[in-house]
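Let us practice reading a record.
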Amino acid sequence: MTSQTAANPRQLFTVLLAGACVLLVVHALGRFIYTPLLPYLVDDGQFSASDGAAVATWNYLGYLMGAMVAIKWHRIAHIRVMLPLFLAVHVITTLIVTQTDNLTLISASRWLNGVANGVVFVQAPALILEWLVLRNRATMSGLVYIGVGAGLLVSSGLVTGTAGWLEGAERWWPAALLSIPLAWWGVVQLRKLDIPVRQHDDSGKELVNTPLIDRASAPLFLSYAGAGLGYILPMTFLPLLAKLELPEGHALLDGTWVIVALFTIPAPWIWNKLGARMGDLPALRLNFLIQLLGVLAAVLWPGALGLMLCAALVGGTFLGTVLLTQRLGRALHPHQGPRLSAAMVALYGFTQMVGPWLTKQWLDGGGTLVSAFGIGVAALAFGLLLAFFVPKPEDWHARSQ
Protein backbone atom coordinates (compact mmCIF):
# COMPACT_ATOMS: atom_id res chain seq x y z
CA MET A 1 0.00 0.00 0.00
CA THR A 2 1.34 3.42 -0.89
CA SER A 3 1.46 6.04 1.78
CA GLN A 4 -1.56 8.29 1.98
CA THR A 5 0.52 11.38 2.69
CA ALA A 6 4.10 11.85 3.69
CA ALA A 7 4.57 12.67 7.34
CA ASN A 8 7.25 15.20 8.15
CA PRO A 9 9.58 14.60 11.11
CA ARG A 10 7.76 17.16 13.24
CA GLN A 11 4.41 15.42 12.69
CA LEU A 12 5.91 12.03 13.53
CA PHE A 13 7.50 13.38 16.68
CA THR A 14 4.27 15.08 17.82
CA VAL A 15 2.12 11.99 17.22
CA LEU A 16 4.56 9.62 18.95
CA LEU A 17 4.99 12.05 21.85
CA ALA A 18 1.23 12.39 22.24
CA GLY A 19 0.86 8.62 22.36
CA ALA A 20 3.74 8.36 24.81
CA CYS A 21 2.10 10.97 27.04
CA VAL A 22 -1.27 9.21 27.27
CA LEU A 23 0.44 5.85 27.95
CA LEU A 24 2.55 7.53 30.62
CA VAL A 25 -0.64 8.83 32.21
CA VAL A 26 -2.72 5.65 32.27
CA HIS A 27 -0.05 2.98 32.52
CA ALA A 28 2.63 4.65 34.66
CA LEU A 29 0.70 7.20 36.73
CA GLY A 30 -2.35 4.94 36.77
CA ARG A 31 -0.96 1.46 37.19
CA PHE A 32 2.75 1.23 37.86
CA ILE A 33 3.04 4.07 40.35
CA TYR A 34 1.19 1.72 42.69
CA THR A 35 4.30 -0.51 42.83
CA PRO A 36 6.64 1.99 44.55
CA LEU A 37 3.67 3.37 46.52
CA LEU A 38 2.71 -0.01 47.98
CA PRO A 39 5.45 -0.31 50.65
CA TYR A 40 4.69 3.25 51.85
CA LEU A 41 0.94 2.65 51.97
CA VAL A 42 1.51 -0.54 53.96
CA ASP A 43 3.85 1.31 56.36
CA ASP A 44 1.26 4.09 56.73
CA GLY A 45 -1.25 1.49 57.89
CA GLN A 46 -3.65 2.13 55.01
CA PHE A 47 -3.83 -1.64 54.38
CA SER A 48 -1.79 -4.85 54.74
CA ALA A 49 0.44 -6.40 52.08
CA SER A 50 -2.26 -9.02 51.43
CA ASP A 51 -4.92 -6.31 51.02
CA GLY A 52 -2.51 -4.44 48.75
CA ALA A 53 -2.33 -7.50 46.51
CA ALA A 54 -6.14 -7.58 46.42
CA VAL A 55 -6.26 -3.89 45.40
CA ALA A 56 -3.80 -4.66 42.60
CA THR A 57 -6.03 -7.52 41.46
CA TRP A 58 -9.03 -5.18 41.23
CA ASN A 59 -6.97 -2.81 39.09
CA TYR A 60 -5.93 -5.63 36.76
CA LEU A 61 -9.52 -6.87 36.55
CA GLY A 62 -10.47 -3.39 35.38
CA TYR A 63 -7.65 -3.49 32.82
CA LEU A 64 -9.01 -6.76 31.44
CA MET A 65 -12.53 -5.35 31.24
CA GLY A 66 -11.25 -2.19 29.56
CA ALA A 67 -9.51 -4.23 26.89
CA MET A 68 -12.74 -6.18 26.31
CA VAL A 69 -14.60 -2.89 25.92
CA ALA A 70 -12.01 -1.94 23.30
CA ILE A 71 -12.66 -5.20 21.41
CA LYS A 72 -16.33 -4.27 21.14
CA TRP A 73 -15.76 -0.64 20.17
CA HIS A 74 -12.63 -0.85 18.03
CA ARG A 75 -13.43 1.41 15.08
CA ILE A 76 -11.71 4.74 14.53
CA ALA A 77 -14.94 6.66 15.18
CA HIS A 78 -15.30 4.89 18.53
CA ILE A 79 -11.71 5.65 19.51
CA ARG A 80 -12.13 9.38 18.89
CA VAL A 81 -14.92 9.46 21.48
CA MET A 82 -13.59 6.94 23.99
CA LEU A 83 -10.01 8.21 24.36
CA PRO A 84 -10.95 11.54 25.99
CA LEU A 85 -13.74 9.90 27.99
CA PHE A 86 -11.52 7.29 29.61
CA LEU A 87 -8.61 9.65 30.16
CA ALA A 88 -11.10 11.74 32.16
CA VAL A 89 -12.08 8.59 34.08
CA HIS A 90 -8.41 8.05 34.93
CA VAL A 91 -8.07 11.58 36.34
CA ILE A 92 -11.29 11.38 38.36
CA THR A 93 -10.52 7.99 39.90
CA THR A 94 -6.99 9.08 40.80
CA LEU A 95 -8.41 12.14 42.53
CA ILE A 96 -10.82 9.91 44.47
CA VAL A 97 -8.00 7.81 46.01
CA THR A 98 -6.34 11.01 47.26
CA GLN A 99 -9.36 11.46 49.55
CA THR A 100 -10.01 8.11 51.22
CA ASP A 101 -8.51 5.33 53.34
CA ASN A 102 -11.58 3.13 52.89
CA LEU A 103 -10.41 -0.16 51.36
CA THR A 104 -13.67 -0.76 49.49
CA LEU A 105 -13.66 2.68 47.89
CA ILE A 106 -9.96 2.39 47.05
CA SER A 107 -10.57 -1.00 45.41
CA ALA A 108 -13.53 0.32 43.41
CA SER A 109 -11.59 3.36 42.23
CA ARG A 110 -8.59 1.27 41.27
CA TRP A 111 -10.88 -1.11 39.36
CA LEU A 112 -12.39 1.75 37.35
CA ASN A 113 -8.94 3.25 36.83
CA GLY A 114 -7.91 -0.11 35.40
CA VAL A 115 -10.84 -0.02 32.95
CA ALA A 116 -9.62 3.36 31.72
CA ASN A 117 -6.07 2.02 31.44
CA GLY A 118 -7.21 -0.99 29.40
CA VAL A 119 -9.19 1.10 26.93
CA VAL A 120 -6.50 3.75 26.40
CA PHE A 121 -3.60 1.27 26.31
CA VAL A 122 -5.34 -0.52 23.43
CA GLN A 123 -6.76 2.42 21.54
CA ALA A 124 -3.94 4.98 21.56
CA PRO A 125 -1.20 2.70 20.12
CA ALA A 126 -3.69 1.11 17.70
CA LEU A 127 -4.77 4.53 16.42
CA ILE A 128 -1.17 5.61 15.97
CA LEU A 129 -0.21 2.34 14.26
CA GLU A 130 -2.99 2.77 11.69
CA TRP A 131 -1.84 6.34 11.04
CA LEU A 132 1.78 5.19 10.64
CA VAL A 133 0.82 2.30 8.32
CA LEU A 134 -0.85 4.77 5.96
CA ARG A 135 2.46 6.63 5.81
CA ASN A 136 4.68 3.54 5.51
CA ARG A 137 6.18 4.20 8.95
CA ALA A 138 4.81 1.19 10.85
CA THR A 139 8.28 0.24 12.09
CA MET A 140 8.20 3.32 14.32
CA SER A 141 5.09 2.17 16.17
CA GLY A 142 6.97 0.62 19.09
CA LEU A 143 8.48 3.97 20.03
CA VAL A 144 5.17 5.05 21.56
CA TYR A 145 5.89 2.67 24.45
CA ILE A 146 8.83 4.83 25.50
CA GLY A 147 6.15 6.76 27.40
CA VAL A 148 5.71 3.78 29.70
CA GLY A 149 9.43 3.56 30.42
CA ALA A 150 9.75 7.28 31.00
CA GLY A 151 6.66 7.07 33.17
CA LEU A 152 8.27 4.48 35.42
CA LEU A 153 11.12 6.88 36.11
CA VAL A 154 8.67 9.75 36.64
CA SER A 155 6.54 7.64 38.99
CA SER A 156 9.59 6.61 41.00
CA GLY A 157 10.65 10.25 41.35
CA LEU A 158 7.16 11.36 42.35
CA VAL A 159 6.92 8.71 45.07
CA THR A 160 10.40 8.98 46.56
CA GLY A 161 10.56 12.75 46.15
CA THR A 162 7.40 13.30 48.17
CA ALA A 163 7.77 10.35 50.58
CA GLY A 164 8.87 12.53 53.50
CA TRP A 165 5.98 14.98 53.49
CA LEU A 166 2.96 13.00 52.25
CA GLU A 167 1.18 10.18 54.05
CA GLY A 168 -1.53 7.63 53.24
CA ALA A 169 -4.03 8.76 50.62
CA GLU A 170 -2.12 12.02 50.10
CA ARG A 171 0.62 10.07 48.34
CA TRP A 172 -1.58 9.88 45.21
CA TRP A 173 -1.68 13.67 44.72
CA PRO A 174 1.46 14.00 42.53
CA ALA A 175 0.11 11.42 40.06
CA ALA A 176 -3.30 13.11 39.93
CA LEU A 177 -1.91 16.59 39.32
CA LEU A 178 0.56 15.53 36.64
CA SER A 179 -2.05 13.45 34.81
CA ILE A 180 -4.29 16.42 34.02
CA PRO A 181 -2.07 18.45 31.62
CA LEU A 182 -0.46 15.40 30.02
CA ALA A 183 -3.80 13.70 29.32
CA TRP A 184 -5.32 16.87 27.92
CA TRP A 185 -2.45 17.66 25.54
CA GLY A 186 -2.04 14.07 24.38
CA VAL A 187 -5.68 13.48 23.53
CA VAL A 188 -6.00 16.82 21.72
CA GLN A 189 -3.16 15.79 19.41
CA LEU A 190 -4.44 12.25 18.80
CA ARG A 191 -7.95 13.37 17.94
CA LYS A 192 -6.51 15.43 15.07
CA LEU A 193 -5.13 12.38 13.25
CA ASP A 194 -6.52 11.89 9.76
CA ILE A 195 -7.27 8.18 9.39
CA PRO A 196 -9.84 7.18 6.75
CA VAL A 197 -11.86 4.02 7.35
CA ARG A 198 -10.51 1.19 5.18
CA GLN A 199 -13.14 -0.87 3.36
CA HIS A 200 -10.74 -2.83 1.10
CA ASP A 201 -7.31 -4.39 1.44
CA ASP A 202 -4.28 -3.66 -0.75
CA SER A 203 -5.54 -5.95 -3.54
CA GLY A 204 -8.98 -4.34 -3.62
CA LYS A 205 -10.84 -7.12 -1.79
CA GLU A 206 -13.48 -6.11 0.73
CA LEU A 207 -12.20 -6.38 4.31
CA VAL A 208 -13.96 -8.84 6.60
CA ASN A 209 -13.25 -9.82 10.18
CA THR A 210 -11.73 -13.29 10.10
CA PRO A 211 -11.23 -15.31 13.31
CA LEU A 212 -8.39 -13.96 15.43
CA ILE A 213 -7.51 -17.38 16.81
CA ASP A 214 -6.19 -19.95 14.33
CA ARG A 215 -3.34 -22.45 14.17
CA ALA A 216 -0.83 -19.65 13.65
CA SER A 217 -2.02 -17.14 16.22
CA ALA A 218 -3.12 -19.54 19.00
CA PRO A 219 0.43 -20.28 20.22
CA LEU A 220 1.22 -16.55 20.04
CA PHE A 221 -1.78 -15.74 22.22
CA LEU A 222 -0.84 -18.47 24.71
CA SER A 223 2.77 -17.29 24.77
CA TYR A 224 1.56 -13.75 25.47
CA ALA A 225 -0.54 -15.07 28.34
CA GLY A 226 2.60 -16.52 29.90
CA ALA A 227 4.32 -13.16 29.50
CA GLY A 228 1.50 -11.34 31.27
CA LEU A 229 1.58 -13.64 34.29
CA GLY A 230 5.37 -13.79 34.36
CA TYR A 231 6.22 -10.11 34.37
CA ILE A 232 3.43 -8.81 36.59
CA LEU A 233 4.81 -10.27 39.83
CA PRO A 234 8.07 -8.27 39.87
CA MET A 235 6.30 -5.25 38.37
CA THR A 236 3.86 -5.27 41.29
CA PHE A 237 5.88 -6.57 44.23
CA LEU A 238 9.58 -5.88 43.59
CA PRO A 239 9.88 -2.84 45.91
CA LEU A 240 7.92 -4.70 48.59
CA LEU A 241 10.25 -7.67 48.20
CA ALA A 242 13.22 -5.30 48.58
CA LYS A 243 11.71 -3.99 51.81
CA LEU A 244 11.38 -7.54 53.14
CA GLU A 245 14.90 -8.65 52.17
CA LEU A 246 17.09 -5.58 52.71
CA PRO A 247 18.06 -3.70 55.88
CA GLU A 248 16.55 -0.32 56.66
CA GLY A 249 18.23 2.52 54.79
CA HIS A 250 19.56 0.33 51.96
CA ALA A 251 19.80 2.18 48.63
CA LEU A 252 17.82 -0.51 46.80
CA LEU A 253 14.71 -0.01 48.93
CA ASP A 254 13.72 2.64 46.41
CA GLY A 255 16.46 1.84 43.93
CA THR A 256 14.92 -1.32 42.45
CA TRP A 257 12.13 0.69 40.83
CA VAL A 258 14.64 3.24 39.53
CA ILE A 259 16.60 0.39 37.92
CA VAL A 260 13.42 -0.95 36.32
CA ALA A 261 12.65 2.51 34.96
CA LEU A 262 16.14 3.16 33.61
CA PHE A 263 16.23 -0.15 31.75
CA THR A 264 12.66 0.26 30.50
CA ILE A 265 13.20 3.66 28.83
CA PRO A 266 15.46 2.44 25.97
CA ALA A 267 13.77 -0.98 25.71
CA PRO A 268 11.22 -0.11 22.96
CA TRP A 269 13.97 1.30 20.75
CA ILE A 270 16.27 -1.66 21.39
CA TRP A 271 13.63 -4.32 20.69
CA ASN A 272 12.38 -2.41 17.65
CA LYS A 273 15.93 -2.55 16.27
CA LEU A 274 16.44 -6.21 17.20
CA GLY A 275 13.10 -7.14 15.63
CA ALA A 276 14.04 -5.37 12.41
CA ARG A 277 17.52 -6.91 12.32
CA MET A 278 16.91 -10.53 13.37
CA GLY A 279 13.16 -10.80 12.79
CA ASP A 280 10.35 -10.22 15.27
CA LEU A 281 9.90 -13.91 16.08
CA PRO A 282 13.55 -14.72 16.97
CA ALA A 283 13.70 -11.43 18.88
CA LEU A 284 10.60 -12.43 20.87
CA ARG A 285 12.15 -15.77 21.85
CA LEU A 286 15.32 -14.01 23.01
CA ASN A 287 13.17 -11.53 24.91
CA PHE A 288 11.39 -14.33 26.79
CA LEU A 289 14.68 -15.98 27.73
CA ILE A 290 16.17 -12.79 29.17
CA GLN A 291 12.98 -11.97 31.07
CA LEU A 292 12.82 -15.51 32.46
CA LEU A 293 16.39 -15.22 33.75
CA GLY A 294 15.48 -11.93 35.44
CA VAL A 295 12.61 -13.35 37.49
CA LEU A 296 14.60 -16.51 38.22
CA ALA A 297 17.42 -14.36 39.66
CA ALA A 298 15.10 -13.00 42.35
CA VAL A 299 14.29 -16.58 43.39
CA LEU A 300 17.82 -18.02 43.26
CA TRP A 301 19.66 -15.09 44.84
CA PRO A 302 17.46 -13.40 47.46
CA GLY A 303 18.93 -10.04 48.38
CA ALA A 304 20.58 -7.19 46.53
CA LEU A 305 22.05 -9.18 43.62
CA GLY A 306 18.82 -10.97 42.76
CA LEU A 307 16.79 -7.79 43.11
CA MET A 308 19.12 -5.83 40.81
CA LEU A 309 19.18 -8.53 38.14
CA CYS A 310 15.41 -8.92 38.26
CA ALA A 311 14.85 -5.16 37.99
CA ALA A 312 17.28 -4.76 35.08
CA LEU A 313 16.32 -7.81 33.03
CA VAL A 314 12.55 -7.53 33.46
CA GLY A 315 12.64 -3.75 33.02
CA GLY A 316 14.63 -4.13 29.82
CA THR A 317 12.33 -6.72 28.25
CA PHE A 318 8.64 -6.49 29.16
CA LEU A 319 7.80 -3.66 26.73
CA GLY A 320 9.70 -5.52 24.03
CA THR A 321 7.39 -8.48 24.60
CA VAL A 322 4.40 -6.19 24.04
CA LEU A 323 5.56 -4.50 20.86
CA LEU A 324 7.02 -7.65 19.25
CA THR A 325 3.90 -9.71 19.98
CA GLN A 326 1.59 -6.98 18.72
CA ARG A 327 3.59 -6.69 15.49
CA LEU A 328 3.65 -10.45 14.99
CA GLY A 329 -0.08 -10.68 15.59
CA ARG A 330 -0.80 -7.95 13.08
CA ALA A 331 1.51 -9.64 10.56
CA LEU A 332 -0.49 -12.86 10.94
CA HIS A 333 -3.81 -10.96 10.63
CA PRO A 334 -2.87 -7.82 8.68
CA HIS A 335 -6.33 -6.21 8.45
CA GLN A 336 -7.48 -6.70 12.05
CA GLY A 337 -5.87 -3.55 13.49
CA PRO A 338 -7.32 -2.30 16.78
CA ARG A 339 -9.49 -5.42 17.24
CA LEU A 340 -6.39 -7.62 17.31
CA SER A 341 -4.61 -5.31 19.74
CA ALA A 342 -7.63 -5.30 22.04
CA ALA A 343 -7.89 -9.10 22.07
CA MET A 344 -4.22 -9.50 22.95
CA VAL A 345 -4.35 -6.87 25.68
CA ALA A 346 -7.46 -8.54 27.11
CA LEU A 347 -5.61 -11.84 27.38
CA TYR A 348 -2.55 -10.11 28.82
CA GLY A 349 -4.83 -8.31 31.27
CA PHE A 350 -6.43 -11.56 32.42
CA THR A 351 -3.10 -13.16 33.26
CA GLN A 352 -1.93 -9.96 35.00
CA MET A 353 -5.05 -10.12 37.16
CA VAL A 354 -4.35 -13.75 38.03
CA GLY A 355 -0.79 -12.99 39.18
CA PRO A 356 -1.59 -10.77 42.21
CA TRP A 357 -4.55 -13.04 43.09
CA LEU A 358 -2.29 -16.11 43.15
CA THR A 359 0.23 -14.14 45.20
CA LYS A 360 -2.46 -13.22 47.74
CA GLN A 361 -3.51 -16.87 48.05
CA TRP A 362 0.13 -17.90 48.45
CA LEU A 363 0.79 -15.30 51.16
CA ASP A 364 -2.45 -16.06 52.99
CA GLY A 365 -1.47 -19.74 52.93
CA GLY A 366 1.85 -19.02 54.65
CA GLY A 367 4.10 -18.78 51.59
CA THR A 368 6.80 -16.17 51.18
CA LEU A 369 6.85 -13.41 48.60
CA VAL A 370 10.15 -14.54 47.09
CA SER A 371 8.83 -18.07 46.58
CA ALA A 372 5.74 -16.60 44.91
CA PHE A 373 8.06 -15.29 42.18
CA GLY A 374 8.40 -18.93 41.15
CA ILE A 375 4.94 -18.55 39.60
CA GLY A 376 6.42 -15.95 37.28
CA VAL A 377 9.33 -18.22 36.39
CA ALA A 378 6.97 -21.03 35.38
CA ALA A 379 4.76 -18.66 33.37
CA LEU A 380 7.67 -17.22 31.39
CA ALA A 381 9.06 -20.70 30.72
CA PHE A 382 5.63 -21.61 29.32
CA GLY A 383 5.61 -18.46 27.17
CA LEU A 384 9.09 -19.19 25.82
CA LEU A 385 8.10 -22.75 24.92
CA LEU A 386 4.95 -21.65 23.06
CA ALA A 387 6.91 -18.99 21.14
CA PHE A 388 8.68 -21.83 19.31
CA PHE A 389 5.31 -22.99 17.92
CA VAL A 390 4.52 -19.62 16.30
CA PRO A 391 5.19 -19.69 12.53
CA LYS A 392 6.88 -16.88 10.68
CA PRO A 393 4.11 -14.71 9.18
CA GLU A 394 5.56 -14.92 5.66
CA ASP A 395 5.71 -18.72 5.84
CA TRP A 396 2.17 -18.91 7.16
CA HIS A 397 0.71 -16.70 4.43
CA ALA A 398 2.68 -18.52 1.70
CA ARG A 399 1.27 -21.84 2.90
CA SER A 400 -2.32 -20.56 2.92
CA GLN A 401 -2.17 -19.18 -0.64
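A brief commentary: The domain at 9-195+214-396 is CATH 1.20.1250.20 (Growth Hormone; Chain: A;).
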